[in-house]
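Deliverable D4.2, example record:
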Amino acid sequence: MNDLYEKMSEVRKDVAQDDVIRDCLTQAGFDADLADSGLLVGAETYAANLEEAVESGAFGAPFYITPDGQRFWGQDSLDDLDQHLAELKG
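Output generated by the structure prediction step:
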């Protein structure tokens, strides 16, 4: 993986372009078809989820927002989250 990062930093081109990514993969000894494997879609989904989380007020992990807007943050709040969800379910 370090070879890939080195190649990407060496080219000084727009690494958001598919042809640049494919070329960097090839130069680093990887199959250029990896660019078509969904990695970019995953990165785009991650970015969209991150933006939504920030807009919703999330500030740590794990962070849960229930359908009624209650917020629960941290591993130690999971019991409270379970109880709240049970109350919502009725």
